[in-house]
Automatic annotation (TrEMBL):
Signal peptide: none
Protein name: Pentatricopeptide repeat-containing protein At1g53330
Originating organism: Nelumbo nucifera
Keyword terms of this UniProt record: Repeat
UniProt cross-references to Gene3D superfamilies, sorted A to Z: Tetratricopeptide repeat domain
């Protein structure tokens, strides 16, 4: 765009939408006419909507608050509720429950009427944050906020699923019917999932029949997936396969990879891995492509059986079939190697991950670090720890303290000093770490070494 070209309030939303970089978009929003910065710019509602969405996706929350403060001064329009719903959702995905609640409470200050839409956004955000008690607290005063709809109850029932509260889920379902709020397929799917998780399979299948008979709703893929998972959990694998065959025969719903992945995992668990190839053939026949989760289930199954050659073969097969292995694919094999004491192979695969275009994550480092500690490869563990901290990652506190204790027990005082320095750089030295050091050193009557250790850390 020509920098001298004037940007009108009508053109700004178009330019913001085109700009992929959220920081540059914010810069454009704040100063749309850089050649005349003193002239008052009349922002439109779409401009606010677009910039807030871009900032939310980039998790630039401080900037969002600044934009909201600016928008609160607007008198030419009233912001739409959907803008606040989006902000609440962004906070929920980032596990920022207090900010989500504050945004919801602040909607009236913008002269915007709150409805059940923003209330549901808040409930869902709190659900993402696992603030189940807060959800119960808000629900008690539900009539003060909005008139609940099916979506409201779906979120509440899902909260019961996460807290494994079957009785509360049933009460909510009965309450819906008393209030003449018609449940939908998501309602039944969530409730059936709760029943299956509580091994109430007869009730789950009965509710599935009621969906069609009483409410005229066809069970969807989520309902069938929950039932199949429930049967697998109850070690009724043959019944799970019968249900899968029933779906195929009646063409009730389209079977997806999630259902097949569940069955594949259970075949490995039941020691029936020989049947997995038949499942894969069936998936190909009906046009259901195995995804990364499906392959990871098979990789995990082979690793549990210490069949690492087959697990590796799947990595290559995934690449050949255009299904890119993810970090979980590698982490599962590295963990399998560590558990089997094959630390050299674990290190080699870990170091080979970048070449395979998959960077190790914090879980990768923690798996390898724990494996090296368990295998008493203390120098290698210290090197991995140093690399972790350099990348801004830290081990689990229990693992770090265990490692420090091992170094003390093995009289590796020079290495201990280095490790404590590394942990200090990552702000990972806590009181428990010092308790481990002090208790072991005092037990060995090496107070002089301890004083030297403290002096070294203070001076570093």
């Amino acid at each position: 765009m020509d920098p001298l070209q004037k940007v009108s309030p009508f053109r700004l939303p178009y330019l913001l939408r085109r700009e992929k970089n959220p920081k540059l978009a914010l810069q454009l929003f704040r100063n749309p006419n850089s050649n005349n910065p003193l002239k008052l710019f009349r922002y439109s509602l779409p401009s606010y909507d677009i910039i807030i969405t871009k900032l939310g996706r980039a998790k630039m929350f401080n900037e969002i608050e600044q934009i909201l403060a600016q928008m609160s001064q607007e008198t030419r329009f009233i912001p739409k509720e959907i803008i606040f719903c989006n902000i609440i959702s962004f906070y929920g995905r980032s596990r920022l429950s207090e900010q989500a609640l504050r945004t919801y409470n602040g909607i009236p200050a913008f002269r915007c009427q709150r409805t059940v839409k923003s209330f549901n956004s808040l409930l869902n955000a709190l659900l993402n944050c696992r603030e189940l008690e807060k959800i119960r607290e808000i629900y008690k005063d539900i009539d003060r906020y909005a008139s609940p709809d099916a979506c409201t109850y779906n979120i509440l029932i899902n909260a019961c699923r996460l807290s494994n509260s079957l009785d509360d889920a049933w009460k909510l379902f009965d309450e819906m019917r008393r209030k003449d709020i018609k449940p939908n397929a998501i309602t039944f799917g969530t409730l059936i999932s709760v029943l299956c998780a509580n091994s109430k399979l007869d009730d789950a299948f009965r509710l599935k029949e009621d969906m069609l008979r009483i409410f005229g709703l066809k069970p969807n893929a989520f309902v069938y997936a929950s039932l199949i998972k429930g049967l697998c959990k109850a070690n009724e694998l043959d019944l799970a396969f019968n249900l899968k065959d029933e779906i195929l025969l009646e063409k009730t719903v389209e079977l997806d990879s999630a259902i097949y992945t569940t069955l594949i995992s259970e075949l490995f668990r039941a020691g029936r891995k020989g049947e997995v190839s038949g499942i894969l053939e069936e998936m190909t026949r009906i046009g259901c492509k195995p995804d990364t989760i499906t392959y990871n289930a098979m990789i995990s199954g082979f690793c549990n059986e210490k069949d690492f050659d087959s697990a590796f073969a799947l990595l290559n097969e995934m690449t050949e079939k255009g299904c890119k292995p993810d970090v979980i694919s590698y982490n599962v094999i590295i963990a399998g190697f560590c558990m089997d004491g094959r630390l050299k192979e674990a290190i080699e695969l870990f170091e080979d991950m970048p070449r395979r275009k998959c960077a190790p994550d914090v879980v990768s480092y923690r798996i390898l670090f724990d494996g090296l500690c368990d295998g008493m490869e203390l120098k290698e563990a210290a090197l991995i720890l140093d690399e972790m901290v350099f990348k801004g990652l830290i081990p689990r506190a229990s693992s770090a303290n265990k490692f420090v204790g091992m170094l003390c027990q093995e009289d590796k005082m020079d290495l201990l000093t280095s490790v404590l320095n590394t942990l200090a750089k990552g702000n990972a030295v806590d009181m428990d770490t010092w308790k481990v050091v002090i208790s072991v050193v005092i037990q060995k009557s090496e107070l002089l070494d301890l004083s030297k250790l403290v002096d070294t850390l203070v001076l570093s």
